[in-house]
Amino acid sequence: MAPHRLIRRKPRSPGTTREVRLQDPAASMALIFDAMKRPIDPLYEDVARKREATGEGLVRRPGRSPLLVVTVIALGFLLGAAAHALRVPDSVQADRHAQLVEQVEAKQKANDDSAAEVEALRTELDSNRSSALTRQERSNLSADLTAGERTAGAAAVSGPGLTVVIENPEDAEADAADSDPRTGEDENALTSSDLQHVINGLWSSGATAVSVNGQRITSLSAVRFAGSAILVNYRPLATPYTVTAIGPSDMQNKFESGFSGDYLTSLRKSDFTISTSRGNVTVPAQGTIRIAHAQPVR
User: Which of 71, 72, 133, 288 sits between 20 and 30 A of 202, alpha carbons compared?
Assistant: First the structure.
């Protein structure tokens, strides 16, 4: 530490003196300089020096235990084996897909056969009912019943109408790059919403009966998407989509001049193949009709 200096100052009154002790400015910085040059406390420094002398101050890194290495290797092997077991080989996956498709097609064929049998029995029932009503001289009741069946979609209808055929673009089926991996939907293919626009346009143009690929559209029908297929009455449809409608002679003009005509024009610009023709058409009956209300006729 630097020594203090004594400075004599003249007193205010004569004959007296006063000594003033001033501290050297450099002495106040000694503590800061000491902390900067020796950041470690001297006691800690002495202990560290003794440990280095005895060899205890060397930093020892813990080595990898053989048990830890074996455990990590075993865990990695188990994880790899589990991932391999969960992964289905491509050949097995293809075989399962083929079996599933075969089962679906078999069930679909059985369903079609049952539907054909139901249709044959319904035709026989209608014939017997018509004969019974004729014998009972109730021709008016038979006509009302036939009209109600046509309105409900329980009977086939034939007459002048309009046929609209829509085909997907040529690259829609082959281009899998635009397909959604979660749903299988193709951005270039016709959607259920597109088909709904066409069907609603025909209804608003005066159609009295409409079908899509042989599926009758009734008040209980649903046109929706399921993966990459369009379902009508819970039956999957495939391109080309043939929409058949029975209606008045001016139905085609109303259809093409309205919103639906503009919508078809936009589809044509998207490379859809669309054809419209007029002539005598037949709209089939709905496969199954459930009677919810009935009352006896006297």
Answer: 288
pLDDT for residue 88 is more than 60: yes
Residues 1, 205: Cα–Cα separation, whole Å: 110
Q: Residue 160 is inside which H or E element, if any?
A: strand 157-167
**Nearest Cα to Cα of residue 156 among 252, 287, 247:** 287
**37 and 18 in contact (C-beta within 8 Å)?**
no
Count of domains forming the chain: 2
Across 75-156, the runs of DSSP E, i.e. the strands, are none
- Alpha carbon 125 to its chain centroid, in Å, reads 45
- Among 222, 247, 14, 280, CA closest to 212: 222
Q: Which of 204, 243, 247 is nearest to 223 (CA)?
A: 243
Q: How many CB atoms lie within 10 A of CB 44?
A: 9
**What domain range is 175 assigned to?**
156-285
Q: How far from chain centre, in Å, is Cα 109?
A: 30
pLDDT in tens, 213-253: 999 998 888 899 887 789 998 888 988 999 999 999 999 99
Could you tell me if 251 and 245 are in contact, meaning their C-beta atoms sit under 8 angstroms apart? yes
- 108, part of any domain: no
Token look-up 């078809």 returns 264
